[in-house]
């Protein structure tokens, strides 16, 4: 194995590392994924994939497999101190994935692993990255091999996707800014239940009590995930919760003293405490950070795995474009800025999440007084769904977003060359897409003359949007959409397009 060499080394085969490796392989980039464990996780971790992450997984070729393995969640019902507050649909518009998906993290990782194998990649299990040296045009990663021996992998780029204790981040001396989150713990267990609520595989629940929020989400294969965020009753307790502790907690939160639980097989249960942190930068020369090694928070709202997948999706096309000489290296700095802003935005939302934060007397009063009316208001339900789905998150403020662009392109219906299509059917993860408004003052030939000088493939379409939907897009003659479905440029004329392309694309040799 000596003299091992590849384009990119990905450290860690969690969801982030696997998704990144798939994206890179789809572009034809050589990747080695190193994983210190002998196999994937077997523990209760993330349990939900939100709509934006499902779009990401569609670009990575695994949304169908995940959807088939998970449960589509359609409604959430809320109770506060034993009283029903109301129920809300969980549904978003302008996407091919209107509902979130209930699925175990280990299933997500297994299906990502299958997809990685299908695109010619794989994981080197029991192979731990133990050291790192960066040069001006590459990196060396020292590894401990399954037989206990050591070796060095030489690569163009290394990406630390190895979770909160990231070796790459520590070796580079990048600060992990933030703090431990005091007085919060999450206990969870997967179990079948004998309780008052009828089993509905599309419905999840929240039961709010003073100091504890109990979420209940149906699991593929039957039963539920019971997870409870609560003020920490005893920070010294480390062991996973037993059945009795969880049963008592569920009985108290649901006001059902006779509730009974049977753990699923395997009996997944854990107790976790959290930190809220973001790495000072996600790039140092030829090294990058992604997923939990780049940002970490209490999984209130369930956005850790989801944000890792979205970050991997943002990074894979950029890194592939740089490795293949189609875009300048500076493109990678936009990943750092965009992903750090995203992490801070997710943390802000988490601190406002009234359903999952342990309720205070004031928040309980507010939920009980205002909840019934708000939850019955379609506009409110739409806003909550949009926030949780991550579909509304954009990259405004990034140097890659010009002319008021940055938002994710909504998947609106349109007519293209006489055929009914949706805008996302025109996009592809392996290229950029130029959408020219029907009245755009430039013909296809001139557009092709500009985009054709560059190594990055761009396809042009002239969609005609349905009446009334145009205002959901930036008012511009030309929209240049990135491979990851975000609008990079909203331009009124050809010179603006040329300026943008000149900055971010490399000319053909
Ligand atoms: C209790 C709990 C509940 C959660 N609930 C949710 C939720 O509902 N929704 C959600 O979105 N997120 C949730 N999360 C967060 C989610 O699990 C993480 O955000 C996600 O696992 C991050 O993925 P990752 O690939 O970045 O890192 P990880 O999943 O941590 O993967 C890192 C991998 O790197 C490997 N590794 C580490 N060091 C090395 C090394 N030196 N060499 C080689 N390999 C190495 C590790 O073995 C591991 O396999 C939860 C987390 C916890 C703890």
From TrEMBL:
Domain FAD-binding: 5-348
Superkingdom field: Bacteria
Keyword vocabulary terms for this entry: FAD, Flavoprotein
Gene3D superfamilies membership: 3.30.70.2450, 3.40.30.120, FAD/NAD(P)-binding domain (3.50.50.60)
GO molecular function: FAD binding; oxidoreductase activity, acting on paired donors, with incorporation or reduction of molecular oxygen, NAD(P)H as one donor, and incorporation of one atom of oxygen
SUPFAM superfamilies documented for this protein: FAD/NAD(P)-binding domain
PANTHER family per the UniProt record, alphabetical: BINDING MONOOXYGENASE, PUTATIVE (JCVI)-RELATED (PTHR43004:SF19), TRK SYSTEM POTASSIUM UPTAKE PROTEIN (PTHR43004)
Protein name as annotated: FAD-binding domain-containing protein
